[in-house]
Amino acid sequence: MIKLVAIDLDGTLLNNKKEISARNKAAIAKAKAQGVKVVVCTGRPLSAIHPFLAELNLEEPGDYSVTFNGGLVQRNDTGEIIEKNHLGFDELQYLIELAQSLDLPLDVLSEEKVYHLPTSAVNESLYATMNPLLTHFWVGLDELDPERVYNKAVIGFDQVFLDQQIKKIPVEIREQFEVIKSREMLLEFMPKGVTKAYGLSLLTRDLGLEPANVMGIGDEENDLSMLHYAGLGVAMANATEEVKQAADAVTSSNEADGVAQAIEKYVLNEGR
To answer: Strands 72-75, 81-84: parallel, antiparallel or unpaired by DSSP?
Structure first.
């Protein structure tokens, strides 16, 4: 029996205008009314998803989100962190050197703040345009505080050049970090082993649930672990081919209320 629905945001719950459809809202409201936990699982920090959580009435006691691609599990109403994992300062130095060697702009996230680093003299980061709700700072490499908590590092840049440079990432980096694309123009680096499945597994344990009680819905590479972990993994019709192959079922696209259709069919048992 599905008792928790884990939902990705971009390309999944959100349509191409970054909006939540009326049908998606209604399905989520019905699921919550039946006692099902609805959990947003995203690479974003909590501050960048509050408008969506408010729109879905998911900011009450007992509502949770998995943020930073599994790096944090938080209570939506208070922001309290109940589980966490983050990059070490020494690890961040490896990623800075990597970005410099690839001539790509590296941004590091520390809670609600984004630090844009000058790792490329000519290529400017596009991350600020992707996440305008966050607070952005342009800093020198010597201005990074070794005592600060760094949740993840990202590279937001033109897809063609980014994909070209991704092929040059050494095996050692992939062995040391989770290296995943979460959007066409966004590459993310997390501590090894920290994935959406990792964060979701901690939350389900805390709630006394099992993977069999979980339905995960996603579309991109960073959703793969979540779909593998969930008892029922659902891919969007607009998902990458790899995600579709990994899923137990495929629903309609993010432009056609795919999330609502999955909840209606597998959670609310409508149309069966």
So the answer is: antiparallel
Q: Break the chain into its structural domains and give their ranges.
A: 4-85+194-266, 89-191
The helix (run of H) or strand (run of E) holding residue 6 is strand 4-7
CA distances, 68 to each of 85, 192, 198, 244, 252 (Å): 9, 13, 11, 23, 26
Active-site entry in 8, 10, 219, 223: 8
**Residue 83: count of CB within 10 angstroms of its CB:** 18
pLDDT tens digits, one per residue of 202-252: 999 999 999 999 999 999 999 999 999 999 999 999 999 999 999 999 999
CA distance 236 to 217: 7
In angstroms, the CA 241 to CA 127 distance is 25
Q: Is residue 103 among the annotated active site residues?
A: no
Q: Which residues does 126 contact at the CB level (< 8 Å), separation at least 6?
A: 156, 157, 158, 185
Which of the four CATH numbers 3.30.1240.10, 3.30.465.10, 3.40.50.150, 2.160.10.10 does domain 89-191 have?
3.30.1240.10
**Residue pair 158/52 in contact by the 8 Å Cβ criterion:** no
Task: Cite the DSSP H helix spans in 110-215.
Answer: 127-130, 159-166, 171-176, 196-207
